[in-house]
Write a structure and sequence with these properties.
The complex is a heterodimer. By secondary structure, chain A is α+β, with helices and mostly antiparallel strands. Chain A has a single domain (about 10-370), classed as Cytochrome-c3 Hydrogenase, chain B. Chain A has helices spanning about 5-10, 55-60, 65-70, 80-95, 100-125, 135-155, 175-200, 200-205, 215-220, 225-230, 235-240, 260-285, 335-345, 345-350, 355-365, 370; strands spanning about 15-20, 30-35, 40-45, 160-165, 165, 305-310, 315-325, 330-335. In chain A, strands 1-2-3 form a three-stranded antiparallel beta sheet. A three-stranded antiparallel beta sheet of chain A has the order 6-7-8. Chain A has a two-stranded antiparallel sheet with strand order 4-5. By secondary structure, chain B is α/β, with parallel strands linked by helices. Chain B has a domain at about 5-85: Beta Polymerase, domain 2 (2-Layer Sandwich). Chain B has helices at about 5-15, 35-40, 100-110; strands spanning about 20, 25, 50-55, 60-70, 75-85, 90, 115. In chain B, the strands form two sheets. A five-stranded mixed beta sheet of chain B has the order 1-2-5-4-3. A two-stranded parallel sheet of chain B has the order 6-7. Chains A and B meet through helix 9, strand 6, strand 7, strand 8 and helix 13 of A and strand 3 and helix 3 of B.
Chain lengths: ~375, ~150
């Protein structure tokens, strides 16, 4: 349609509120959309509906007491949050943990990454109109990971598994067989997704070239994780600033080409394959020994401050901890990946249709628990 | 580059900066914030990523901590600004890094630091009509009492 035609049918601009109670905003996110017909002229995000003031709470909890709170940040990847936090406290305490604990952490974190990406892929496909089937398939696979976690630590969603100095329990007997069986099963399922969903015509039409995020803009907005990699930036903390035992393990970093919604989906799918590879290697190299350093529950680090970031399923999770020598952190700042990933949304949706905003939100895979903290 | 090398590189062009002993963070006077950050972004140090902004209430002064990284050069640095009580305002970095927009709104919301020339300085996590800045040590909530410490 050329401009002379559109000029005649221009409608009055109006405001519409999308959320905070809306199934495709993935939580309590409120978007204020300025619309011209179905075209989005402007978008303002209102967040904070899930704000629980975690950082203030932390100032009145001991270092150990705060671990379960980190479960509630990114509640579909609790293991990764636990791990980021305890690693930050260990850095503050200058504590070296055993090799077995490092491997167990890697296994738990990567399995949780798969579970988190499965939710991202399932809900993304659901948002695009592939009603129920992909979501049910993804949740079927995720259930198997949750069963494994249930056996490891007794919880299904908020694991509270990592401890300062190691992990809560050693791996139970027979779990390695179960994980190996899962890896084999999951590999065939990822291939299934590839031919069911990835190159499906409707799926491609809805997600290809929608929500283009150029490389420079992504870095400028401090976007991280799969969203950054989908824009073609080869940056992954597990490779670039390796922690735990990642440098001993072999895996690739999948990157996208255009930075559109489809690339973000594809990067996540590939990351599932890479995570399976990591879990398999870590399980093979798992050393014997006691996983936990026995150091008690009250820690009084000397006055200092540290910043540590780890690669979460959604991006870079950072903990900035300042200690004043007491058993409580003087200040604890949580740098959450979804906060920065969501900030870029208004740039991506301008000029697109309302249906595309659902697609872009789904592909950014934000989670309000850690955005609002 | 290592933190010390980056510090020396900044020091040669801006003699007013100094290094915090315990942490290695670069302390800069608040007047030269924009000048130094513009230099850090466009100089060969290439700090393209403003990763995190946060504040620390040291009762009496507020410290701002800017965590910068360079994705192309693989290095990072922490900048610090000490703000004295009653003068909690500083220039906004939103014109250099877009990520500063929301990060500065968060610091304003929780600490009450004013960012000058910020495009949209509103509260972000708390409701827009909230009173006070919760992460200040002097803040007390009328309905919440804090349990005694160990």
């Amino acid at each position: 349609m050329n401009t002379s035609q559109t000029k005649d049918i221009c409608t009055e601009e109006f405001l519409i509120n999308m959320g905070p109670q809306h199934p495709s905003t993935h939580g309590v996110l409120s978007l204020e959309l300025k619309l011209d017909g179905e075209m989005i002229r402007d978008c303002t995000a209102h967040i904070g509906y899930l704000h629980r003031s975690m950082e203030k709470l932390a100032e009145n909890r001991t270092y150990t007491q705060f671990i379960p709170y980190t479960d509630r940040l990114d509640y579909v990847a609790s293991m990764n949050n636990n791990m980021g936090y305890v690693m930050a406290v260990e850095k503050l305490l200058n504590l070296e943990i055993s090799d077995r604990a490092k491997y167990i952490r890697v296994i738990a974190a990567e399995l949780n990454r798969i579970a988190s990406h499965l939710i991202a892929i399932g809900t993304f496909a659901q948002d695009l109109g592939a009603f129920a089937t992909p979501l049910f398939y993804c949740f079927r696979e995720r259930e198997k990971i949750i069963d494994i976690f249930d056996q490891i630590c007794g919880n299904r969603l908020t694991y509270n598994y990592m401890r300062i100095g190691g992990v809560q329990f050693d791996l139970p007997k027979g779990i390695d067989e179960k994980i190996k069986k899962f890896i084999k099963y999951m590999r065939s399922k990822v291939d299934d997704y590839d031919w069911l969903l990835t190159y499906n015509t409707i799926f491609l039409a809805r997600s290809k070239h929608i929500g283009l995020l150029p490389k420079d803009l992504a870095i400028n907005y401090s976007v991280s994780g799969p969203n950054l990699r989908a824009s073609g930036v080869k940056w992954d903390l597990r490779k670039d600033e390796p922690y735990l035992v990642y440098e001993k393990l072999e895996f690739d970093i999948p990157v996208g080409e255009n930075g559109d919604s489809w690339d973000r989906y594809k990067v996540r799918l590939e990351e599932i394959r890479q995570s399976l590879k990591i879990v398999e290697q870590a399980l093979g190299a798992l050393p014997e020994g006691d996983p936990t350093v026995k150091i008690g529950r009250i820690h009084k680090p000397s006055p200092s401050e540290i910043y540590l970031r780890t690669e979460n399923p959604r991006g870079e999770l950072g903990f900035f901890i300042i200690s004043d020598g007491s058993a409580y952190p003087y200040r604890l700042k949580i740098r959450s990946p979804s906060f920065s990933n969501l900030a870029v949304l208004p740039e991506l949706v301008k000029g697109l249709k309302i249906a595309d905003i659902v697609c872009i939100l789904g592909s950014l895979d934000i989670l309000m628990g850690e955005t609002d903290r | 580059m290592r933190t010390n090398e980056i510090f020396m590189a900044i020091k040669t062009d801006f003699p007013e900066v100094r290094q915090e002993e315990e942490t290695g963070a670069v302390i800069i006077p608040k007047e030269s914030l924009l000048k130094i950050t513009r230099y850090l972004k466009n100089h060969r140090l290439a700090f393209d990523n403003l990763h995190c902004i946060t504040a620390i209430d040291r009762t009496g002064r507020v410290e701002l901590a800017y965590t910068l990284y360079s994705i192309s050069e693989h290095h990072g640095i922490t900048l610090k600004i000490y703000l004295t009580a009653g003068e909690e305002n500083v220039a906004s970095l939103a014109e250099l890094w877009k990520s500063a927009n929301w990060l500065e709104r968060e610091v304003y919301d929780l600490f009450g630091v004013i960012f000058l020339n910020h495009p949209d300085l509103r509260r972000i996590l708390n409701p827009y009509d909230w009173k006070g800045h919760p992460l200040r040590k002097s803040y007390s909530h009328p309905e919440v009492s804090i349990k005694p410490r160990l």
